[in-house]
Hints:
Layout (H helix, E strand, L loop, with lengths): L6 E7 L1 E2 L4 E2 L17 H5 L12 E7 L10 E2 L46 H8 L2 H7 E3 L8 E3 L6 H5 L2 E2 L3 H6 L10 E2 L3 E7 L5 E7 L8 H18 L8 E6 L5 E6 L6 H7 L5 H20 L2 E2 L8 E3 L5 E3 L6 E2 L16 E2 L19 H18 L26 H7 L6 H13 L18 H10 L10 H5 L2 H5 L33
Helix pairs in contact: 8-9
Amino acid sequence: MSTTSQQVLAVHHRSISPEPMDIPTLPQQHQSSTVLRGNLAETFRSKAIPNKKSSRFGFLFSSNNNSRSNLKMTPADTFESQPNSVDSTPHRRSSSGAQSYRSVESSTFSADQQQPQHKLSKSIGNFIASPASWTKKHLHHTNGSSSEPLSPSANVPRLNDKYGHYIKPSKEASTKASGATNKRNIGSGATAVIRLVQSPQGRILAVKEFIKRDKTEDEKEYLKRMHNEYCISKTVSGHPNVVETMDLVIDEHDRWCTVMEYCDGGDLFNLLTEKPTMPVMEGACLFKQLLLGLQHLHHLGIAHRDIKPENLILTKGGTLKIADFGVADVVQTCFEKDIHMCYKWCGSEPFWSPELWNLKNKDDGYLGQALDVWSAAVTYFCIRFQSLPFAAAFYTGKPGGSPPPGATAGSPAAVAAAATDGGDKDFGLYVQQRSKLGASSCDLWDSFDQGERLTDDEKECLAGMLDPNPETRWTVDQVLESKWMKSIELCNDGELENGWRHYHTKNHSSSNTNSPPKSR
């Protein structure tokens, strides 16, 4: 895609926790030369909406003079939604209007040993659900203020004593992960920053330093959220395509931290930014690695709920690993036969499956693992085309409509109903064509004019993953059993069995004359 024909607009979007949403009113036309910075509310409204720490991430989309209008949200402190802009684009799919992506919460770690896949034990599930038993045992306030830092008891390890002191990352490392905010951090997100330590043995490790509790957050909820993430990430460690979490400690400033293996290949988003012309087979290899990691989570009874390029990190050789379990949920323990529903909307809206846009309130449930499969398919479009298949996976056909009965103000269903463009017309067309023409005959599959077109096997697989019905959507096991997946050769940290290699990261340049030629 020519840079002279397209401009990249930086627009803030967000990765959210369960909370109300708000839509800014956008102008009728985007100017192709405009660079939008900061909060959308500050850009398009005279009165800005506060930008919560839990909502900091960016969103990029490609545009020309015939840009589509897309659903865009910004955090709000109240349950309230505002209309979006009018979409003047004809009801057809246009590759020139397709979206690219950008989010910010990401981290960089490593794991290399696989463990047997047993579902999360019921005792750990209960521990995650009920932190009251350990809250008072391990923690106390330094004073009565709810905003003061938590102090550990003597039996909680100190980061400095066990793993060493923070170190300053190299300039290269600090720019490889999304959200690096200063010279100390290699990444930052809604609830934490990522820093590095060097152990006495010389080993470099990644440390996820949790942001101190906000005044408005209850201590019990803060601890539950933090320990949920640690327990889940610790449980799923041990697979080659999942980051390995090692420990939960306290640093010298009484901040809770998780210690993880560090890998210096950066995150997938930055890789795609640096390497937009990745060979198809290399991209397919990364996608299969994602699916293998996701299969490991699902077999353990875990739904990640925030699969996107920023949460997928790489070793220097190019092994992909799933990271960031901040909104992951236990949906099945080893003693449960049935998978239970998830009940809070979270994650990143461009990667949401259609059923999330139907949620009316916090009592409405959805299948978290089915969401993961949809999000993984959207991620493949990011890998293959540097674009999103849809701006948002809903189309009401009724611009500026009223919320459905029972919808709480600010819920996804209320937000979708209030959109003045009725949502994404391309998604509406996809659903219509899928119903009338068949899943593999939709315009979506041939809408991106970038190199090789999707094969029939790819279309079949992606159509199964992008099934609007979560009940019939393919599972990750079905995807990995597909003809397309079986044809994809996996590399071992870049190395292929035939002596060739994949150059997934910038660290391994095809100019290296000591290596076999670049793979096709």
